[in-house]
Give the backbone structure.
Amino acid sequence: MSHSPLSLLFATHFTIWFLSSTPLVFSLKQPFRPIDILPILPRQVSWPILNSLSRSPIDILPTFVGNVSSPDNTLEWKGTCFQDNSAWMEFHNKSGSQFGGGTLHLKVSNAHSWTCMDLYVFATPYRVTWDYYFLGREHTLEFDEWDGKAEYEYVKHRGVSIFLMQAGMLGTLQALWDVFPLFTNTGWGENSNIGFLKNHMGASFSERPEPWVTNISVADIHSGDFLAISKIRGRWGGFETLEKWVTGAYAGHSAVCLRDSEGKLWVAESGHEDEEGQDIIAVLPWDEWWNFELTKDDSNPHIALLPLHPNIRAKFNETAAWEYARSMLGKPYGYHNLIFSWIDTTDGNYPPPLDANVVASVMTVWNHVQPAYAANMWNEALNKRLGTQGLDLPEILVETERRGSSFDALLAIPEQDNWVYIDGKSTSCVVFILEMYKEAGLFAPIASSIQVTEFTLKDAYSLKLFENDSSRLPKWCNNGDSVKPPFCQIKGKYRMELPGYNSMGPYPRMNEKCPSLPPKYSRPKGC
Ligand SMILES: *[C@@H]1O[C@H](CO)[C@@H](O)[C@H](O)[C@H]1NC(C)=O
Ligand SMILES: *[C@@H]1O[C@H](CO)[C@@H](O)[C@H](O)[C@H]1NC(C)=O
Ligand SMILES: *[C@@H]1O[C@H](CO)[C@@H](O)[C@H](O)[C@H]1NC(C)=O
Ligand SMILES: *[C@@H]1O[C@H](CO)[C@@H](O)[C@H](O)[C@H]1NC(C)=O
Ligand SMILES: *[C@@H]1O[C@H](CO)[C@@H](O)[C@H](O)[C@H]1NC(C)=O
C-alpha cells in the first residue's frame, strides 16, 4: 500500500494542473472528474475539497457493496472508477493454525478514466482493513489467520463486508494507519498501544519497580473510593487507547468500591463481562473482582485506587448509593451515549484526521457489520437529539439536513441524564460512578445542574473529591516506589499518570461545552 513512483508523478502533475485549473479538461477525450485526483492530493487539501464537492454528507459515506463468504458465490458490482468488479472468498490454512485464514480475490476492470481509483474498506466484527486499486486486474487481500472460531464461523456464514469509499478518504485512512494494530492481543499490539499514547498524547510509560501488584489491606478501602483502570492490550486495550486519545483521559475504565451494612467490601462496575461475553453492570465481592484482574483479564490492566477525601466521604450516603447500584444491576454498559460525553463542540473535539464525517463513516460501516448493536449504539441517541423515533442513520442525516442543521451540530447536543433508552438508562463506566456520587449526595447542593453523562473519565478524576494529604494514604500505597503519586497504584508494570488529578471543584453545567484537542487538551475556564 505504499505510494508507487507513478502515483507520485501523478501527484505532482495533477496538483499543478488542478491548481492552475485550465479548461484543458474539456478538450480531453478521456472522461475526467476533479474528484479523481483527490486521492493523490495531501489529506489536508483533499478532505476539505471532497467535503465541499459533495452536495450532502451522505455523498461521502461508505457505500455497502456486499458480503463475500465463499468461492461459489461471486459478488458483482459497479464501482466509482471501475465499472465491472467481482469478488470471491477462498479459505486456506497457510498459517497452519486451528481455524486457518483466507484470501479475498477482487477483480476490477473497465475504468472510466486512466487516473481514477477505487478505495475499499473490508470489515468483520473482528477487524477492519482497507486497500485501493489503480490497475484493472485481479487483486488479492490476505487474512493470514482468523481471530479464533468466532471470526471463522462469522466469515463462513455471513462473509467479509465490503464498502466502497469516496477516493478522497484515502489520506484519512492512511493517517489512521497506526490505529489498526491497536486491537491485536499480542506483545506487538501492546507496544502499538504504548507507542500510540506516547506519540499522540505525550504519555511517558516509565517502568516502576516490582512488585507490580500491591499487597493491599482491604480494611483501608472505603465506600466511594474510585478505581481508575488503564488497559493496554487486546480489543479493550485498542478501544481504550482511542478513547484516551480523543478525550485526553489517561485511564480508560473505572469502577467504584462500596461497603455493605456488614462492612464487606464490593466493587460496582459498568462494563463487567458476564459469562455470555456481554458487558453489563455488576456488583462483585472485592476478592472476586481483584482476583479476576490479577489472573483472568488479558488486557494487562493497570489499576489505581483514588481514595475519597475524608470530608467528602462523610457526605457519601451509602444507603442511597446501594439503592442506585441495585436499580442498575444487570443493565448493559452505556454504549448509547458513550461518544456524546466526548463530543461537546462542532470542531473542538476531533483530533485530525477525525471529524464528524469520519464518525458518520464509522457508524455506517458498523451499521452493516453489527446491525443489532448499531441501532443500540447510536441511532437511538441521535433520534433523541432530533426528537424523532426509529430513524436509521441515513434517515437521520437526511432529516438533519432538511432542518438546515449539520451532523456535527447534532453530535454536539448535550446528553441528558434522564434520557431513558430501550434497555434503560445508559451509563458508561464513569457515568455509572458519577451518577452514584450524585445520588449519594457528593454534588449537593448543585446536583440538579450537573449532567454526569457529559463527563469523561478525565473529567471524573479531575474533580476535587479525593484525598489531598499524602500522610493519610494507606501504608501500602505506592510502597516500594521512590516516585509517590497522590493516589495509590495497585497494579501494573508502568507508572500510571493522571494529569489534572483532584484539581477542579464541581460547578453548574460543567463539561457540557468543552473542547478536547491533543496533545495538551487545554480547556477554557468554566466550560
Ligand atoms: C451481509 O451481512 C449483513 C450482516 O450479517 C446482513 O445484514 C446483510 O443482509 C448481508 N448482505 C448480503 C448482501 O448478504
Ligand atoms: C490447519 O492446519 C493445522 C496444522 O496442520 C491443523 O491443526 C488445523 O486443524 C488446520 N485447520 C484447518 C481449518 O484446516
Ligand atoms: C501481605 O500483608 C499482610 C499484612 O498486611 C502479611 O501478613 C502478608 O504476609 C503479606 N503478603 C505478602 C505476599 O507479602
Ligand atoms: C440517605 O439516603 C436514603 C435513601 O435515599 C435516605 O432515606 C436518607 O434520608 C439519606 N440519609 C441522609 C443522612 O441524607
Ligand atoms: C485539601 O482539601 C480540603 C477539602 O477540599 C481543603 O480544605 C484543604 O485546604 C486541602 N488541602 C491542601 C493541602 O490542598
